[in-house]
Amino acid sequence: MRHFLDFEKPIAELEGKIEELRRMSEPEGVNIAEEVARLTIAVDRQLRATYAKLTPWQKTQVARHPDRPKTKDYIASLITDFTPLAGDRAFGDDAAIQGGMGRFRGRSVVVLGTEKGADTESRVKHNFGMARPEGYRKARRLIELAGRFGLPILTFVDTSGAFPGIDAEARGQAEAIARSIEACLEAPVPLISTIIGEGGSGGAIALAAGDRTLMLEHAVYSVISPEGCAMILWRDAAQASTAAEALRLTADDLKKLRIIDTVIPEPLGGAQRDPAATVAAVGASIAETLALLSTSDPAALKLRRRQKFLDMGREAIV
After folding, report:
1. How many CB atoms lie within 10 A of CB 34?
2. What confidence category does residue 30 fall into, taking pLDDT thresholds of 50, 70 and 90?
3. Distance of CA 81 to the CA centre of its chain
């Protein structure tokens, strides 16, 4: 069954009526096909009206939608001959970060991403996409591997942030995130990151400090979650919607601020309504971006990447 968000209730009611009609045998004097067509047009109209004016908090809810395609879906659809690589060679493996080698449209690449999971069992297995230090050390290992073999790096970000548990802190969470960011910045190969859902805090930028950052239309990317921001500023998580407005976490805002480079349009009603079309759009955007970066030599790539991050916020300061 389709999962509807709170602000989608009018859409849910219309689609519920369509399902009821389709299950009915056609009574005398009633043309079910015509009624279904009429309601379908009403659903489309309601979707357009609703998604044309989403607030930042509503976009956050869409970004967290359980039916949005996850990292594993992008890998399965876009990467052929995928060989997963596991472990940080120091402590163990972290299922919250998936990675390995494969081919993207015939070209060998290293791919990495945070995986939230699609159901209760897989969410627990992947720790809801919140990685521990060994996950970021695995990411660093694969990024350095890509550099040694001259393979472009594709990353997919979908996490509320790094895992904040005591065990993660004891094993050096902050240092592991910093080293992963360092590896991204120092990679001598193209690194393209795509924010596919929620991009939260250092746990997200640990995989996103690359040459180009692509972002789905209804994804969010921020230094902290709206709930976390609300608890710090107002001591009240109920102020999350206000915090979301202040954080400027939507794709449109971040494009204007030059934090991200490309906004990838989503199907009407969000990625969750047509995962296949969303994955295809992301693949096309990655291919276009990779073609632009492939002609750069390693020194020029690193210099431009460094300057990109140094320039962030400069206009606002001036």
Report:
1. 9
2. low
3. 23
